Amino acid sequence: MKVPDSVRQEFLRRLGPVVRLDEPLWRHTSFRIGGPADLWVEARTTEEVQTTLGLAALYGVPVTVLGAGTNVLVSDRGVRGVVLRLGRPFAVLEWPDGEGGMRVRAGAAGSLRKLVRAAVERSLEGLEFAEGIPGTVGGGLLMNAGAFGGELGSVVEAVHGVESGGEARVVPKESLRFGYRRMDLPEGFVVTFVEFRLRPGDPSEIRARMEEARSRRRNSQPRGKPNAGSIFKNPQGTYAGRLIEEAGLKGARRGGAMISTKHANFIVNLGSAKAEDVRALMEEARLVVEKRFGIRLEPEVRLVGEWD
């Protein structure tokens, strides 16, 4: 149900210019797909995040957090409730021990790519596997982003954020319980900053690993058409893209969406794709792979908003 006008006006009154009504979400996703958000809040401070979550709890309004929009498929009908995005003040990188220190405090809205490159410039290892992974630090954290044998969770020390009721909290590493493309956080928790501890290493070796990750990603993934990254998680012992390709689905189309001819675990927007086109291709791939190989693919991309 759409947020009542009286509640929308209260958000505007309390938060002012950081609130927009009926914001088109296709502007904020890498797929370039998505209907409007009832309320769009781009918070600049932790206090504004707290106010947003407090008001949402008070009025029973659902909250959806959106980072760079690189791992989501937003419904054509949009998102009911609040869509919260952290603004530029949450994109900082801080080095508490000085420029040569091994600890870094990264804003959740910051670019994961910038974090990787800042670490490499300081000859610190532990993040170079993530070179080229799109999206934000917060988004990478929540999916425990990984590639080429590395995972973000291996270098996380603690997570700062705001609980669903509006209370600020720090969650230590031992409570996060990282797994494959997942981690544990309290329901409704909004990540604002992430603390990492890296390791000093040989500068040439670190840079070489980063360049290798960049090259492998460029050579294997589609470029030039909007997409949301990997659509499915890799099943244990194999690769989702390989299964989809062997099922004969490379190049399959629904409306303006197509399973990439370069990497079958990507769906690209040919220019006019709807969210339903993408979801239909996802379902087709899931059903065909399960029928042929007996393996049920699990989505990595997150479906957001109103769906039938």
- Number of contiguous helices: 7
- Strand count: 18
Tell me the radius of gyration: 20 Å
Q: What is the percentage of strand-forming residues?
A: 15-25%
Specify the structural class.
Answer: alpha+beta
User: Sheet bearing the most strands, described?
Assistant: 5 strands, antiparallel
Low-confidence stretches: none
Write out key terms for the chains shown.
single chain; 308 residues; alpha+beta; five-stranded antiparallel sheet; 18 strands; globular
In summary, what is this structure?
It contains seven helices and 18 strands. The chain has 308 residues and is an alpha+beta fold.
If you had to describe this structure to a student in words, what would you say it looks like?
This protein has 308 residues and is α+β, with helices and mostly antiparallel strands. 28% of the residues lie in helices and 24% in strands. The protein has 7 helices and 18 strands. The strands form 6 sheets. The chain has a 5-stranded antiparallel β-sheet with strand order 6-7-13-11-12. The chain has a 4-stranded mixed β-sheet with strand order 1-2-5-3. Strand 6 and strand 7 form a beta hairpin.
Secondary-structure blueprint:
Blueprint: H1 5-15, E1 19-24, E2 36-43, H2 46-59, E3 63-65, E4 72-74, E5 79-86, E6 93-94, E7 103-107, H3 112-121, E8 124-125, H4 137-142, E9 146-147, E10 150-151, E11 156-162, E12 168-172, E13 190-197, E14 199-200, H5 203-220, H6 240-246, E15 253-254, E16 257-259, E17 267-269, H7 275-293, E18 302-304
Parallel strand pairs: 2-5, 3-5, 4-18
Antiparallel strand pairs: 1-2, 6-7, 7-13, 8-14, 9-10, 11-12, 11-13, 15-16, 16-17
Helix pairs in contact: 1-2
